[in-house]
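Database export, one record per block. Field names are fixed; values are copied verbatim from the stored entry.
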Amino acid sequence: MKRETVFLRLAVFVLAVPIVAACLFLLPYIWREAIESGSWIEDSIRPIVIGMYGSAIPFFIALFQTFRLLRLIDRDEGFSYRAVQSLRAIKFCALAITGIYVATLPFFFWFADRDDAPGFLLIGLVLVFAAFVVAVFAELLQKLLKRAIDMKQENDLTV
């Protein structure tokens, strides 16, 4: 089981690197370019960039919970209530990210409408959809894991 969790830890790390790079380099660059261009672009980009920075916080909390869950699996504690708590935290982080991106959708629409770039609105919709899918998947895993733990406890009591 150790080899699989090492692969998953590496995958989580690979997911984190582009987000850190975006927060450190890409988003400040977009912010500066929007300020330099002035006019309506600055007004529409500012809430989007703030939303992206705001979504980074629950994203990194979810990554921490993912590492915690993988550590529990390494210790053969994958079927424990701590694992359920980690999945619950991941679910709430994904829902928070979904909420943040839903709040920024009007600004995606405003920018796409003013710049005549419908693909920009599609980017916002993909962000909302991806975060929501993660939340639903975490909810499903949480319920399955809780049911498995309850069945395990019931079997332990009958023996």
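Remark 1: The chain has a mean pLDDT of 92.
Remark 2: DSSP finds four helices and no strands in the chain.
End of record.
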